[in-house]
Amino acid sequence: MPEDKLPKRSEDFSAWYNEIVQRAELAEHSPVRGCMVIRPNGYGIWELMQQALDRMFKETGHQNAYFPLFIPLSFIAKEAKHVEGFAPELAIVTKGGGKDLEEPLVVRPTSETIIYSMYAKWVQSYRDLPILMNQWANVVRWEMRTRLFLRTMEFLWQEGHTAHETEQEAEEETLTMLGVYRTFMEEYLAMPVVTGVKSDSERFAGAVRTYAVEALMQDNKALQMGTSHNLGQNFAKVFELQFQSRAGNLEHAWNTSWGVSTRMVGGLIMTHSDDDGLVTPPKLAPIQLVIVPIFKTDAEKLTVMEAAEEVFLHLKAAGIRVKLDDRDSLSPGAKFYDWELKGVPLRMEIGPKDVQNNSVVIVPRILLDHEEAPKPGRKQKLFISRLDLGDRIKHLLDELQTQLMRNAHARREANSIRGVTDYTEMKALIERDAGFIYAGWCGMTECEAKVKEETKATIRVIPFPEFQSATKPERCIVCGVSAKHEVVWAKAY
Amino acid sequence: MPEDKLPKRSEDFSAWYNEIVQRAELAEHSPVRGCMVIRPNGYGIWELMQQALDRMFKETGHQNAYFPLFIPLSFIAKEAKHVEGFAPELAIVTKGGGKDLEEPLVVRPTSETIIYSMYAKWVQSYRDLPILMNQWANVVRWEMRTRLFLRTMEFLWQEGHTAHETEQEAEEETLTMLGVYRTFMEEYLAMPVVTGVKSDSERFAGAVRTYAVEALMQDNKALQMGTSHNLGQNFAKVFELQFQSRAGNLEHAWNTSWGVSTRMVGGLIMTHSDDDGLVTPPKLAPIQLVIVPIFKTDAEKLTVMEAAEEVFLHLKAAGIRVKLDDRDSLSPGAKFYDWELKGVPLRMEIGPKDVQNNSVVIVPRILLDHEEAPKPGRKQKLFISRLDLGDRIKHLLDELQTQLMRNAHARREANSIRGVTDYTEMKALIERDAGFIYAGWCGMTECEAKVKEETKATIRVIPFPEFQSATKPERCIVCGVSAKHEVVWAKAY
After folding, report:
1. What is the Cα gyration radius of chain A?
2. Does pLDDT of A176 surpass 90?
3. Among the four residues A54, A352, B388, B429, which has the most C-beta atoms within 10 Å?
4. Measured between CB atoms, which of B36, B66, B127 is closest to A329?
5. Residue A45 carries which DSSP code?
């Protein structure tokens, strides 16, 4: 266990993030530049994310499949925008089985090309549509500057790929999956998000329209948490994905694709964690509650461990992800420090007095507003009877989940600046990392590019109506021309 | 739906296999030579395999993690036997981000090297041991002759990698995981297997000892279903995976690795399927029961569909993976054909008369010995009351699972030839694909090589005691010298 303290968020956010990832044993750099090793504590979070999303995908009618890691270089080149977007990021296999390959193989950066080439074989008639598939896979994009979870050369993700009879159905699917992402992020990640459409310059290479889910991190930089693309007929035309329509004509199918990745783990860390370490929403915590037994004498150890084991089995049977920390090599204080750093939502302390009282002490990882406040400078402690313990703990986990969402939402709102109309003011806001800045935009790429060049901020999304300000901005903040949209500006990861 | 009949197993086993994989929409060749596309019907089986194994791995104390796809070429080269075994099969990335790489990257064929190089960073003392990790991943081995599921360039698998304080602990782990595989194959795949140790020439490149799980397919060829390796200190020495021992010395850790892959789906097909198509053990069937409504008039349709939907919801709530086939475009007969081909364990027919009788008709995919036998040339039909339907169906699924195991076991036993002592006889047996041939072996590589050269058969395993013949063979079947082991010979996939 490292003795030195974590860097503070307020002093060096980036160092704080890196230290949490390393010390909580979530991930680590590998000997291969840009590739990360996801350690069990980090992978456990990803597994819970996968399980929840996979269930939501299946409930919306999707099936999993698996397509090859390798894609012929010629496939990527077929869609003009697609190759333009991805060519600089490709990893290329040129040798196999001891020989130079005739055609180099690309390690998939995304799978539109190979997947739609297969769909073209499977689809003859409108009866074969829709195709609603998803794959869980690794992808590779050659990145020069990488950060654990946020931007790595190889990352794990899911990519959904669908084919539809009509444009409208494809658009509905694109929005449905964006909605699934939003629900997942709010309910599981306890993360408030803004959804909307991307500007043309931020669109996925090959899409007609890209929708995104954007979140605000504690350093007031934006993180794109997921995207959902309406691909129109772009790929269908290139890969001859055609079908006999109800009217008897040969038509091109309409495609969508959508994905989220291990980047979400980075978003989770930067949304909830504090200067004591990781904070994990209970629904995504591999360990939801840790039991730390406290005793001095051998006689005390005997009674305390007996009670601790009883409680452990009881909570496990109640479906709570619980761990009993019975390490002899660490003091209770060292264990507290360790589990706080690792972000376990609830800590349970059981000492001889607790055994006598048939109760336990619960210390939540974050302050719960609805429970009794602690004395200044002290941790919140809840004294709980062992009767109905399972239900009580479940309730506390729910409360903690809700509290995290409430905190994150309040922070996001406090750092959303609306009604900015002066460009000089906006530049100053961006300069001091003020958060999401809502302002008018004329819709011209030139104005967008100017802001990006001068401030490094980009249009995160043109937000959906429910995220728009009550009063619509009248003019573009850059050029002063009549505003076409209200947009959200921020620097982003 | 293809009109032409499946090839018969007895006439062309290989064509029969390929046609089942394609027509049941399990998998397909991709545009990249040697890589396959796993379609939802095939992937659904793999997902159920993953879920069961993952649970078993976690119950035996393992955690999941994820290590990079790319491995520096120099890492692979560090362990002499390892590079010798894998060098001819490597896919190599030489370009990334538009530039030639200084050091080529290998697309992992297996991850011992990268994983133990990381363990070396994490382990200082015996207190950090054991490390018990597993990863679900894709791997690539450049294969010239590929077959869907059985041998593909890219395949999906899990690879467990552990590090231990003592040689004995590593050996115990190796055997524990072999046992987990055996249990999984018997209980889920309904597949009888022989476990034992591999001869030196069949050992994993870099292992001290390789244990394997071998099964006999319907064409009497063996399929290696999984392996578990005791790696000794080979990789620990090369990657300096050392720890401070309890006695205070610096010692090398002891490693094990073990894996099973999508190849198991091929094994499932070749073990249970018949001339009508795929047969899936209920525990691994994405759809366990399909409901086919039968009606003529619109009035009948109304009552039948209402009953079918009720039954569907009832069975779903009971935890059965059920599908209601309400396609209007197909006749009931065409549906029967389709679901038989796709291997759904139970078919339920509901017609107007069944609605009246408050009953359903069940047609099991294979003959159930414990149920009433059908008339010659007819399917087995079970008439079942709708009272207690959930329990009855669950019982039938269990019965079918057990029946498959019984059938496969009887077939394996009928094709296990024991006590062969004459080499000419053995050659004749191998020539006519007689199955598993048990015979004595002196332990010399020369004798093993001679058989392989003359017959193409290999030693599948030196079987564990519970699989050995009552009478031990006295002499090596090849050279006549005193036998060291009884071994199992067969041609293999």
Report:
1. 25
2. yes
3. B429
4. B127
5. H
